Amino acid sequence: MRTCLPCSKPQEVQRRDQSLECVQLQKAIAKYAFISKEEKVMSQNNGSAKRSEKGLLTPDNCVVALIDHQPQMLFGITSIDRQTLINNVVGFSKATKVFGLPTILSTVETKSFSGYIWPQLKAQFPDITPIERSSMNSWDDAKFVAAIKASGRRKIVLAGLWTEVCVTFPTIQAIADGYEVYVVEDLCGDLDVKTHDAAMRRVEQAGAKPVTWIQVMLEWQRDWALRETYDAVMDIVKTHAGAYGMGVEYAYTMVHGASPTELPDWTPPLELTHK
């Protein structure tokens, strides 16, 4: 007797195949993507912190990819102040952890040219092993694309160095493959402003959406009444958002009477202490 179409496999075989596929997917996520405790808690809370979409980014509908934030790539940047760029990347990385975003790190030719991922960035994701590539285009790398697919999300929030190559190439091809790509412009940089701007125009013409890191973080927060992430967002703002952060500190202390923010003391390493 013939089984029914469209699938001719016995149900037991189908279930075994589906189970194997699930295991493979979970392994890919565990190896290449970071999912924080906050995301797990939000899932267990039956979506109590869900935000409306309607064209906006939410913590539930996107995956983050940070590409080639490495020393050699930073050396050539003049389109943005390099210390500002590092600050922005670290601030945004903290935000991905607050909201539990799956985050993928990738590096290119680490030992032969580019150097290890910035220690400031690695410190935010100590358990992630960056996906190492030889290709300038991360979308040509099967491991990178597999990590994106393993997230199960069709919106990619992407940034990297340099804008004209390591951001532009994967952005255009991811869009061609049906993904929505949001390029975090102030986490990117290039040889000069003209080069960076030309690259941004090209990805926009291909359909990418330019955003900035604070915009994305506030898009994820959306409502100040969502207290489970409010304090962490304000801490990031005060630490990494410059004058905006100073304004928050002033309002807290001078208007609302809160105690001043206390930062951890810094002790010089022993070898730097003058004898």
Q: How do the strands of the widest beta sheet line up side by side?
A: 3-2-1-4-5-6
Rg over CA atoms, rounded to whole Å, is 21 Å
Count up the domains: 2
Query: Overall pLDDT, averaged?
Result: 87
Shape: globular
Uncertain segments are: 1-9, 37-48
Number of strands: 6
Classify the secondary structure makeup into a structural class: alpha/beta
CATH topology value of the largest domain = Rossmann fold
Summarize the structure.
The protein is 49% helix and 11% strand.
SSE order and pairing:
Blueprint: H1 11-32, H2 37-44, E1 62-67, H3 71-75, H4 82-98, E2 103-108, H5 110-114, H6 119-122, E3 131-133, H7 142-151, E4 155-160, H8 163-176, E5 180-184, H9 193-206, E6 209-211, H10 213-221, H11 227-240, H12 242-255
Parallel strand pairs: 1-2, 1-4, 2-3, 4-5, 5-6
Structural write-up:
By secondary structure, the chain is of the alpha/beta class. It folds into two domains: 168 residues, Isochorismatase-like (Rossmann fold); 32 residues, no CATH class. It has twelve helices and six strands. Helix 8 links the parallel strand 4 and strand 5. The N terminus is likely disordered.
Keywords for this structure?
alpha/beta, 275 residues, 2 domains
